[in-house]
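Rotation project, supervised by the postdoc (A.L.). Task for the rotation student: set up a whole-complex structure prediction and record inputs and outputs verbatim in this book. Inputs entered:
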Amino acid sequence: GAVVSQHPSWVICKSGTSVKIECRSLDFQATTMFWYRQFPKQSLMLMATSNEGSKATYEQGVEKDKFLINHASLTLSTLTVTSAHPEDSSFYICSARDALGRASSYEQYFGPGTRLTVT
Amino acid sequence: RKEVEQDPGPFNVPEGATVAFNCTYSNSASQSFFWYRQDCRKEPKLLMSVYSSGNEDGRFTAQLNRASQYISLLIRDSKLSDSATYLCVVNGGSSNTGKLIFGQGTTLQVKP
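Outputs recorded:
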């Protein structure tokens, strides 16, 4: 149980185009999903917290107009990188909390990640 | 100062060795602590939660010292398959946002 999928697993796009990444919880409902970015040899950095039915909460320094997040259902959140540039090339990982989990539980289930390369 | 600090390593050890990783965190309000394992170009996977009383799972032992804001992971009888990056993870403060803060990770290479 507790499987999170991401699609696509890798994508190459041209500078200036937009890319949408999907994050799905396959066997549980997730009121909260998280989007992270990881550059080579660095740790995961939280970009935003995606809340079902409401606006996402972005971390300091993350442009909300560039990284559009939609969490329209309890099993799907999407991240759209708009007008992508080479510096946006990174490993994007989502995670989800089980909506029925204990309030005190911080365990997150991670998707397999999406490797974005912008040329 | 980083919120979660780890020695990035790499730690190069022979098979069968015992190796210990340390981690410090800055937010005294943090309540939940984890060790995750990340293989190259893969997502992090939960290795174990860390409890105040310390906990053990097979060859892995985790310890938490709240007073010193220090977390450790001990791996006994290292296997080649233990080679990975180990991430120290702490929840982001006392609010129930579920936010996790990741350390930079410590890289372990187990050699035959």
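Student's summary: The CA atoms of residues 10 and 86 of chain B lie 11 Å apart.
Supervisor addendum: The mean pLDDT of chain B is 91.
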